[in-house]
Amino acid sequence: MAHRTRPGARRRADRGQTAVEFVGMLPVLILVGLALVQFGIAAYAIQQTGTGARAAARTAGLDEPEITPDAAGRAAMSGWLAKGATFSPGSGGPGAVTVTATVRIPSIIPFVDDLGATEKTVTMPRTKESGP
């Protein structure tokens, strides 16, 4: 005679298996989530670097700017990225100005301190301000 089990007996034997599987997958899910957030932060840092470089180059191209190109670049960026940003002028040629902005990419991944830096170079024409 074949051994028969009651319908609910199998479910009771598997009780807790789902919780164990979830706990086993939790570190993988956390790492994937951190990687996605880190990717977004890196993309945002790259975008902000371009924004800061454009603002700094636009200001550097003015004949009599009210603020320095560094200050203009930092003002155009988010404060938490602008703190570590550097702006260096380049040779834009006659009638143009070039500024290179460099921003370190912040890391939220544990035990990873340095993800490198992003750098954007922008060239803008020199403009003459019109007087009153």
Explain what you see:
The chain crosses the membrane at residues 20-46. This is TadE family protein. It holds the Pfam family TadE. Residues 16-58 form the TadE-like domain. There is one protein chain. By secondary structure, this protein is of the alpha+beta class. It has one domain (18-125). 46% of the residues lie in helices and 17% in strands. The protein has helices at residues 9-13, 17-60, 69-76, 79-82; strands spanning 86-90, 96-104, 117-125. Strands 1-2-3 form a three-stranded antiparallel beta sheet. Strand 1 (86-90) and strand 2 (96-104) form a beta hairpin. The radius of gyration is 27 Å and the shape is rod-shaped. The N and C termini lie far apart (107 Å). The mean pLDDT is 87.
Q: Which features characterize this protein?
A:
rod-shaped; three-stranded antiparallel sheet; 4 helices; single chain; 46% helix
